[in-house]
Amino acid sequence: MEAAYNFIFEHENDDILENLELLDNIVRRPKTYKERRDYFEEYDDVDFRTRFRLSKESCLDVLQMIEDKLEYPSNRNKSISPINQLLLTLRYYATGSQQITMGDYCGMSKSTSHRIIHRVTVAIASLGRQFIKFPASEEEVKKEQLQFYNIARFPKALGALDCTHIRIRSPGGENGEHFRNRKGYMSINVQAIGNANLEILDLVARWPGSNQDQTIWNGSYRNTIFESGQYGDAFLLADSGYMNRPYMPLQYPLTPEERLYNESQIRSRNPIERLFGIWKRRFPVLTLGIQVQLKNCLPIIVATAVLHNILIKAKEELPSDDPEIQLPAPWDDLIEQGHIREHRHNDNINRDINPVRRSLINNYFRSLHLQSL
């Protein structure tokens, strides 16, 4: 109808009466209502979890937290119930399909499914402060450090830091190429800090894919907190994509102590890699690509992160426990040698060990020796 009006009023020299007669001859498409199936009652819990990634119990828990934001004031024009709105959005996260396909699956038009997906996404993302929280109290910090220590006996680790690329469609415009990452596709480089239980403790989802991990960390709020020393002697586990810090792996480990230190730290930061894998497998829209406008991509990333944490807390779809990790280096032999002495090397070997990291290594093994006495 709108196209017809535009066509008519573009021809200003035509007779107005003829234009009005043309409008009268336009036949509007009748409004139809598609059948909406009750998937919540139709599927058992196994089929429901396969298609929507949440169990029925978790789905009801999420619905209870956001239902007041999804409820329509009246039932005019056969308004869609909150549970059907939530299931439509979960199905979109679980498949990454086009929104017109989601509308056909749930019995609604493309425009309606578009509005509902973003409405529910914003509602779930608003729960971010409740479910994505960095440890603040001393008890919470010690709890996280103990969980990391139990992985490979690496002390004082508060979290594992890394970034991952979330594929998006090209935003276009003069700044569109800023989102092309080193792998050649458009993405948002998302920074996350995870704990040993695969929960997301901190999330930064606003940087174009061309930005490096270190750039994102430098501009984050959490970096400011760590630099100010508010977390004391706690630190983060990171890979070689970040600057030379005390918590970085050694680039050239030569002695048994240094190799063991490196191995322990690498194994301790493994949960962040597993976290990204589970998060993306659970919600394939993050892997296949978010085919919406850029402004709507960020709430989807946050909303899926919130759902991921909810499922982790509910212990749903967790991978089986890994077998006990055996470090290749002889822990007992190194501890029995007494305090760790600083090893000297040939002058022709270029060492990349700053005094802070050297002190950390020595204190690390000294503390292990004292515990073994």
From TrEMBL:
Residues 161-309 form the DDE Tnp4 domain. It is found in: Cytoplasm; Nucleus. Keywords: Cytoplasm, Hydrolase, Metal-binding, Nuclease, Nucleus. One of its GO terms (molecular function) is hydrolase activity. Its cofactor is a divalent metal cation. One of its GO terms (cellular component) is nucleus. PANTHER family: DDE TNP4 DOMAIN-CONTAINING PROTEIN-RELATED, PTHR22930. Belongs to the HARBI1 family. Transposase-derived protein that may have nuclease activity. Does not have transposase activity. This is Putative nuclease HARBI1. It comes from Parnassius mnemosyne. The lineage of its organism: Eukaryota, Metazoa, Ecdysozoa, Arthropoda, Hexapoda.
